[in-house]
Amino acid sequence: MSKLLDPKIMMAIKDLSLAAKTTIDGFMQGINKSAIKGPGMEFSQYRSYQPGDDLRLLDWKMFARSDRYYIRESEIETNITLRLLVDASASMDHQDGDFKKIDYARYLAASLAYLGNLQGDIIGLNVFREHEVIALPAKQDFQHLSRLFYQLEQITPAGKFTAADVYTPLYTGGGSSELTILISDLYQDTNEIFELLDVAGTMKHEVIVFHLMSRNELELDFQGYSNFEDLETGETIQVDQSAIRKAYMSKLQTYLEEVKERALDKRIFYRMLRTDQPLDTAIRDFLNQRKKLKV
């Protein structure tokens, strides 16, 4: 797998569009070429003719070679609508080493958007921050992709996650099925994030949640710090990390299991991602879920 999928190397590329292209090019070099297909009709396999099959699907060249009747099956690749939901609440400003959760989120979203555009998908972006939703309508062209990259570059985390009464009107009405991807650390004041996922679920969208966690919060390893501030409320507490680590790890594990179970109960694909790990896992998950979506 390309080293350019390493977040530290990827985030050294300041141009977001170049970083996304470099990431996807590196990813595609490391996987079976057949895993990524563009729009159109692609040959899949032959199977024996069965009574009732459409005779127009018979492969006469194969019959000439084998004197047997075969049906040529093809796989139809269809475009989908891909909607990226990015959490821009203040907790996404959490930092581990040289970069923040929001950095990982913007590069992940850019990479998925670039790959979706490459496959002919229609792509939209919603950024959630207290009291507002920045919405970029779903379109398919490189100009639109450039606007999406620009919006991702402008994200400045602030406040809490958008309240449900603000974003719910954006998701009312009909529309075709989408592949909805939420990139978030899932920190919420009440239940606003899972209410958003409920809305997407009722609209019959396929949903992926990429749950971002940093190494230092997963391991409670904040070297040299004893005072901790809640980025969204501003509250501070004093902590002896070594004294509470065992209890913290136990509660964290319980929390992660509950979040995963809650997502699975809603038929949401859930993946926890460490922000110091390469993006290939997330990209593979996107490709797998894309194949399942029926337009």
**What name goes with the CATH superfamily of the largest domain?**
von Willebrand factor, type A domain
Number of strands: 12
CATH class of the largest domain: Alpha Beta
The fold-level CATH name of the largest domain is: Rossmann fold
Specify the overall morphology.
elongated
Total tally of structural domains: 2
Q: What is the CATH-assigned architecture of the largest domain?
A: 3-Layer(aba) Sandwich
User: Count the helices. How many?
Assistant: 10
Strand adjacency order, main sheet: 7-6-3-8-9-12
What percent of the residues sit in helical stretches (DSSP H or I)? Answer: 25-40%
Helical/strand content category: alpha/beta
Query: How much is the radius of gyration in Å?
Result: 22 Å
Describe the model.
The protein is α/β, with parallel strands linked by helices and 295 residues long. The protein has 2 domains: 3-33 and 79-292, 3-Layer(aba) Sandwich (Rossmann fold), CATH 3.40.50; 40-77, no CATH class. Helix content is 38%, strand content 24%. The chain is built from 10 helices and 12 strands. The chain has helices spanning 7-10, 16-29, 60-66, 101-118, 142-153, 164-167, 192-202, 215-219, 241-265, 280-292; strands at residues 40-48, 70-77, 81-87, 95-96, 99-100, 122-129, 132-139, 178-184, 206-213, 227-229, 236-238, 269-274. The strands form 4 sheets. The protein has a 6-stranded mixed beta sheet with strand order 7-6-3-8-9-12, with helices on both faces. A hairpin with a 2-residue loop joins strand 6 and strand 7 (132-139). The protein starts with 6 loop residues before the first helix and ends with a helix. 30% of the residues are buried. Residues 32-43 have low confidence and may be disordered. Pfam families: DUF58. This is DUF58 domain-containing protein. Residues 45-252 form the DUF58 domain. It comes from Pedobacter quisquiliarum.
